[in-house]
């Protein structure tokens, strides 16, 4: 099972050595605004960065295809813009934003949460989903860890997170000291770390945990029951994922966002993402990137997260 699991999740997508579309003057917005979109349309392809985290974006080694919620949506939306080919560039999650700014690829398609700190570095599309968190543990874990606050209160509890993921921030805000946060490079390593006892729980989105459990049903792991969602300013936190762009690529982002707005929530969209565990409960509603970035007031409270 370990070999199958690793093969399905970590097969490397060779990016090649060809110069990426839009890489000329590929600083944070050094290219002229229309050029990234025009070059991608002319070339018929666009490079996207992903971090191998199912169900958001991962390489399916059985068929040699980059898939997941974000790449599949990207294919549809980019296709409507006249860009028929999507080329994936495998990158650690924490290196996605630096890779985008360095011009290794022209869009992040990894289900990345829209957060104010990230908004200061890159631009986001409007979100494609909203979801809560959860903990994964071994079934013989004796600790009663039902949320980040419980982990903070237990002086021996260790919380596993993926490098660069927002769960690291949730743990820190709850009072979990850095010495008890175990940082893993990817989802596979985090799950194996829990199984091996290097961390007591792995903190991730509820969708990620559901996908893990579906793929390895015979492993002695399970989600923590009765998980308490993190809160911020007295409100339950719900994560919203979107696509990331360099701030200078205004034409590309705006064109993508226009088509995305027609697609999200449509029957075609829901059929496309259903195999990855997404349902109508994960639709983002009227939440926008501008609201999530703090650029405009939110229209109202976000919907309560689904039970993990």
What report would you give on this structure?
- With 308 residues, the chain is an alpha/beta fold.
- The chain has twelve helices and 15 strands.
- The strands form four sheets. Strands 1, 4, 5, 6, 7 and 15 form a six-stranded mixed beta sheet that branches. It has a five-stranded mixed beta sheet with strand order 10-9-11-8-12, sandwiched between helices. Strands 2-3 form a two-stranded antiparallel sheet.
- Helix 3 crosses helix 10.
- The longest helix is centred in the C-terminal third of the chain and has 14 residues.
- The N terminus and C terminus are likely disordered.
Topology:
Elements: H1 2-10, H2 35-43, E1 45-50, E2 58-60, E3 65-67, H3 69-80, E4 85-90, H4 96-101, E5 107-113, H5 116-119, E6 123-124, E7 129-131, E8 133-138, H6 148-153, E9 159-162, H7 167-174, E10 181-184, H8 187-196, E11 201-205, H9 206-215, E12 221-223, E13 231-232, E14 235-236, E15 239-245, H10 250-263, H11 267-273, H12 289-292
Parallel strand pairs: 1-4, 1-5, 9-10, 9-11
Antiparallel strand pairs: 2-3, 5-15, 6-15, 7-15, 8-11, 8-12, 13-14
Helix pairs in contact: 3-10
In short:
The chain is of the alpha/beta class. The protein has 12 helices and 15 strands.
